[in-house]
């Protein structure tokens, strides 16, 4: 399996509850390295661009408002098979369906306030990383 990079967000519900370190510890324990990280506060419009793929969904407005409600931590994670590994560590989108030991099982509040986002494929990982980070900010 190849070394990959993937994009990760620690969402407002988690930063608000001071869970940033606990979540990063889960990634690191799974063998993922944080090669870029910053804490930012998105506008609703910036969240809307990031989640544009969901703009026809009924929850789009609520999702963008939520993502702009508090600071978030955006990160790039690197490791073997990082895209799939990150999704495994995060658990299912809906915390009610997430496996034991996953971030969402342990920390998420609901399907909307689900503590973390992670890229779902190589092309989206590249696009999402490029939306938030310049090449100079990626330090492997
Ligand atoms: P994420 O992995 O960030 O990708 C899109 C997000 O939309 C998802 O996590 C959820 O937080 C959110 N989402 C998905 N389905 C719903 C829903 N039914 N209601 C509210 N938010 C949702």
Automatic annotation (TrEMBL):
The active site is at 117 (pros-phosphohistidine intermediate). Its main location: cytoplasm. It is an enzyme of class 2 (transferase). SUPFAM superfamilies: Nucleoside diphosphate kinase, NDK. The keyword Protein biosynthesis does not apply. CDD domains: NDPk_I (cd04413). Its cofactor is Mg(2+). Keywords: ATP-binding, Cytoplasm, Kinase, Magnesium, Metal-binding, Nucleotide metabolism, Nucleotide-binding, Phosphoprotein, Transferase. It is found in: Cytoplasm. Its EC number is 2.7.4.6. Residues 3-140 form the Nucleoside diphosphate kinase-like domain. ATP binds at residues 11, 59, 87, 93, 104, 114. HAMAP family: NDP_kinase (MF_00451). Homotetramer. Major role in the synthesis of nucleoside triphosphates other than ATP. The ATP gamma phosphate is transferred to the NDP beta phosphate via a ping-pong mechanism, using a phosphorylated active-site intermediate. PANTHER family: NUCLEOSIDE DIPHOSPHATE KINASE. Belongs to the NDK family. NCBIfam families: PRK00668.1. This is Nucleoside diphosphate kinase. It comes from Thalassovita taeanensis. The lineage of its organism: Bacteria, Pseudomonadati, Pseudomonadota, Alphaproteobacteria, Rhodobacterales.
């Amino acid at each position: 399996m190849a070394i990959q990079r993937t994009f990760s967000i620690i969402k407002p519900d988690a930063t608000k509850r001071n869970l940033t370190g606990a979540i990063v510890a889960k990634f690191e324990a799974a063998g993922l390295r944080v090669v870029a990280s910053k804490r930012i506060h998105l506008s609703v419009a910036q969240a809307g661009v990031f989640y544009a793929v969901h703009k026809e969904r009924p929850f789009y407005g609520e999702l963008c408002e939520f993502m702009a409600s508090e600071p978030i931590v955006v990160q790039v994670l690197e490791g073997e098979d990082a895209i799939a590994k990150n999704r495994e560590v995060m658990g299912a989108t809906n915390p009610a369906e997430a496996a034991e030991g996953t971030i969402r099982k342990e920390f998420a509040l609901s399907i909307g306030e689900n503590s973390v986002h992670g890229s779902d494929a190589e092309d989206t990982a590249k696009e999402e990383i490029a939306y938030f980070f310049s090449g100079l900010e990626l330090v492997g």
